[in-house]
Amino acid sequence: MGSEALPDFDRMAVVFDRYLPLIDPVGEAVLDHLAPVPDGAQVLDVACGTGEPGLTLARRSPGVHIVGIDAADGMVQLARAKAHRDGVRNIRFEAMAAERMTFADQSMDAVISRFGLLMFGDTAAGARQLARVLRPGGSFSIAVWDDMSTNTLVRLTIDALRPRVPPDLVAPFERLDGADARDRLRDAAVTNVQSAVFEWHYAFTSEESLWQFVSGPGVFGRQFAVLDDEAKRAVRADVERSFSRYRAASGYRIPHTCRVHWGRR
């Protein structure tokens, strides 16, 4: 995926925690599908962002040792600050790309990831790295986007942006999925893979809060940066029209679907 179209995750780090409540249910699904990890186990959280779901697991299992990695140093710095602030001592964070891990072979008892591993960059290399660092019999649980038609907010926003931004700024989002994640794992010799669809909703209290999420300095920051005021107004009109079907008494409830893959090495 072209990095020039993806969010600038280092710059996005300062606002990333605003978005965590929207995907908290996915982190819970990842942990729910992870096999129990005993005290003393080494767990790797790949593409951890500002610390989740690793921090949640660390709080629930204080005898487990967790390392979270993310390619964006800005995310890692905030994750470290949160762990220090909350006194969570059984987790550490390092800046590291999923496809270029420096951990020793078979050094991890479990691997978790929410929307990062097997979705961006060299996904085949990411799968090989998971297989390399996970010990035989070790467990994993990862969430990936599945069919992009069910990634509702991204799909409808990109539909609104497409006529108004250069094609290279929207094309990568149209391939933002982990549809081949299971095949990538099997190609990397991780053959014990189970899979299930997970459904949840994004909730926004108002039209304005939805628009601030869409147009703010986050997921679509690079795309909105090239729009003039007239184009932004046109995008907003399209967004309001497209999302009107999801309006509810409490604001907006926008359905989303992803897929959780889990199993053992």
- The 3D shape can be described as globular
Query: What integer value in Å does the Rg equal?
Result: 19 Å
Q: What is the domain total for the residues?
A: 1
The overall strand count is 8
What is the averaged pLDDT score? 92
What is the level-2 CATH architecture name? 3-Layer(aba) Sandwich
Strand fraction equals 15-25%
Return the string of H and E elements. HHEHEHEEHEHHEHHHEE
Helix content: 25-40%
Can you identify the CATH superfamily? Vaccinia Virus protein VP39
Q: Helix count, per DSSP?
A: 10
Low-confidence residue ranges? none
CATH third-tier fold name: Rossmann fold
CATH secondary-structure class: Alpha Beta
Q: Which key phrases capture this entry?
A:
265 residues; alpha/beta; Rossmann fold; 8 strands
Describe this entry's structure for a reader:
With about 260 residues, the chain is α/β, with parallel strands linked by helices. The chain has a single domain (about 10-265), classed as Rossmann fold. Helices cover about 35% and strands about 25% of the residues. It contains ten helices and eight strands. The protein has helices spanning about 10-15, 20-35, 55-60, 75-85, 125-135, 150-160, 180-185, 205-215, 220-225, 230-245; strands at about 40-45, 65-70, 90-95, 110-115, 135-145, 190-205, 245-250, 250-265. Strands 1, 2, 3, 4, 5, 6, 7 and 8 form an eight-stranded mixed beta sheet that branches. Strand 7 (about 245-250) and strand 8 form a beta hairpin. The longest helix is centred in the last third of the chain and has 15 residues, at about 230-245.
